[in-house]
Specification:
single chain, alpha+beta, Cytidine Deaminase, domain 2, 6-stranded mixed beta sheet, 3 helices, globular, binds tetrahydrodeoxyuridine, APOBEC/CMP_deaminase_Zn-bd, hydrolase, cytidine deaminase activity, zinc
Length: 159
């Protein structure tokens, strides 16, 4: 038997350590989270993506009474980006969340399906996506590339 140890890298930044663009993306994600449709979970998620052409797109999560039918903010956003801006790769993705009725920001981390979706977008454009995830303490986790969130990811039908 041999053991395989995998390592991933996540940076945690203080708010003042964020670049102007990183701050803007987090702000856009916060703004769009206010338009979440999340009557079942009460978990309002906002995502904002920066495309290579400088455009910023936003989405919130959109739920359904048939729970699995609901769509996460990131997945909806990346689907929209791919459908409408197929020539401009997503470069940076900010994700934030807030529970209904609360002022503070909740910790959030993309679900498995969204991680796989981010992986597909990276493969499609052959470019890693930097993810910014707002933590409940106000700091931001910066993750350069989905491999850091999805070790042993599935991306080859023939391997
Ligand atoms: N959700 C997202 O939109 N993104 C995430 O990263 C985590 C979870 C949504 C799905 C569902 O509408 C609600 O949050 C609770 O799981």
């Amino acid at each position: 038997m041999k053991k395989i140890n995998l390592s991933t890298e996540i940076e945690e930044l203080l708010p003042e350590e964020l670049s102007t663009m990183e701050k803007l993306l987090i702000d856009r994600a916060k703004e769009v989270s206010k338009r979440a449709y999340a009557p079942y979970s009460g978990f309002h998620v906002g995502a904002a993506v920066l495309l290579e052409n400088g455009e910023i797109l936003q989405s919130s999560n959109q739920e359904n009474v048939s729970f699995p039918t609901g769509v996460c903010a990131e997945r909806l956003l990346l689907g929209y980006a791919g459908a409408n801006h197929p020539d401009s790769p997503p470069t940076m993705l900010a994700i934030v969340a807030q529970r209904a009725g609360e002022e503070i920001w909740a910790g959030v981390s993309p679900c498995g399906v969204c991680r796989q979706t981010i992986n597909e977008v990276e493969n499609r454009f052959e470019k890693p996506i930097t993810m910014l995830i707002l933590c409940s303490n106000g700091n931001v986790m910066r993750i350069k590339g989905i491999a850091n969130l999805l070790p042993l990811k599935f991306d080859d039908l023939n391997s």
